[in-house]
Amino acid sequence: MRALHAVGQAVTIAVCVSVHAAPVAPARITELCAQAEGPAHCGRLIEADQLKALPNLAVRTGGTLKVLLYPTGSREFVDVDTLHGSKTWSLWDYWSPVNVVVLLTTDMDRIGYATLQRTTGQVTLVPAEPSLSPDRQHMAVADFCVTNCDNEVSVWLVARDGIRKELHWKPDAQWSDVTVQWKGDNTVVVEYTPQGADKPRTVEHRLTDAEWQRYGARPAR
User: For residue 180, which of 21, 73, 93, 142 is within the disulfide window of CB 3.0 to 4.6 Å?
Assistant: First the structure.
């Protein structure tokens, strides 16, 4: 989920108006990024589209993205060029009911995401695109790739005092093309392609299922 093709598959503010936006549809991402030169360029094209839908949420000035906090203040995300490549930030989505901004990050050819809580200014890095539960209390992340991934599905608690990893689960086999979504408030639906298979499959896990391991806990013996 950290290569350019993963982006193609993805997919009361502090002013007088309220803003709302839906996640960028996969077809729209494909359209915007068809001629992109790389992940960072793709992210910037998607950001430009989102800034039109969210004109009072953030401002782009050169290599700096400034996001307005609530009720006052702002936080800046500055792109950095190094000898080995660039590190960039792009506006990806806005979860208005919980006042959380989702950012796309790139570090050379790797893609990640980050959440910004506008009420506290807290930034939480996540390895793949997060999916918010219908009750807005959790988000799910599917982090799968050949190298430098945890190859797990994780569930994060979305609370006023921060977003933190709560549960995680790893399959026994190698998976690819993994996406995650919610079925109701408490069930995670994972679509994946097993190694050697040519068709995707799905698996569902309720948050109360025994397969989950609580983050920070030692594995059972």
Answer: 142
